[in-house]
Structures are given as C-alpha cells and as structure tokens.
Amino acid sequence: MPLDSKTILVVGNDAGLAYLLTRYAGQCNLSVITAAAGSALDEAVKAHPAMILFTSLNALRESRAWLPALGGLESKIMACAAVGEVALARELGADGCLLHPLTFDGFASALAASCGA
C-alpha cells in the first residue's frame, strides 16, 4: 500500500524516540502526529495515518483493546522492537517492526517494506 496520507502516528511515552522517529519521517517527507496509547484511537480516526508506529511493545500492548476499532482504516501497524521480540510484536498485532538499534536506513527500509514507500 503506498503512503497515501503521508502521515505517521507515533504512539508511546518515549519522547526521545518519538523525536528521532519524527526526524527520520521528515527526511522521508512524512508528517508525524504523536499520542499516548490512551488517546491514540482518537488521533488515528482523525488523521487516517498510513502507519501507526508504537515506540515499544508495552505501548502496543496497552493499545490492543482499541486496535480492532480501526477496522475501516488501512493503517499499517508497526512497533519498535529488539530482534528477539519480533514474534511477540506480531502476536500483539504488529504488521512489522523497526529493529533496535534504530537507524535511518532501517527506518526507510521498514517503511518501504511495509507500505511500499
């Protein structure tokens, strides 16, 4: 799916990681909206992001209750994770992962693989 909306919703409480992801997204000409797990559903419904990117598996876990409510959106669900956490991220509902340590090349590759950007 191409990135039609050019928007990524970053969900989580890690301000430093959200800043880094915002910088990487900017280099790809994408805009970023950030939200805590509790308010992310409202942001997703308003913004129709191409991707919802969780800064951690904990943020993804906290959001599992509202993910099914996104049924009408075609947003890809991504999570930042360590190599050994990929299976758990998939189990929690992620379509893909950004692997630590995060680099711009890794971000761009994951973006292209998941959304065809």
User: How would you describe the shape?
Assistant: globular
CATH superfamily: Response regulator
Distance from N terminus to C terminus (CA atoms, Å) equals 8 Å
Q: Residue-averaged pLDDT, rounded?
A: 90
Comma- or semicolon-separated keywords:
39% helix; alpha/beta; 5 helices; 117 residues
Write the layout of secondary structure elements.
Blueprint: E1 7-11, H1 15-27, E2 31-35, H2 40-47, E3 51-54, H3 57-63, E4 76-81, H4 86-91, E5 96-99, H5 104-115
Parallel strand pairs: 1-2, 1-3, 3-4, 4-5
Description:
Strand 3, helix 3 and strand 4 form a beta-alpha-beta unit. Strands 2-1-3-4-5 form a 5-stranded parallel sheet, sandwiched between helices. The mean pLDDT is 90. With 117 residues, it is α/β, with parallel strands linked by helices. It is globular. The relative contact order is 0.20. It has one domain: Rossmann fold. Helix content is 39%, strand content 21%. The longest helix has 13 residues.
Summarize the structure.
The chain is 39% helix and 21% strand.
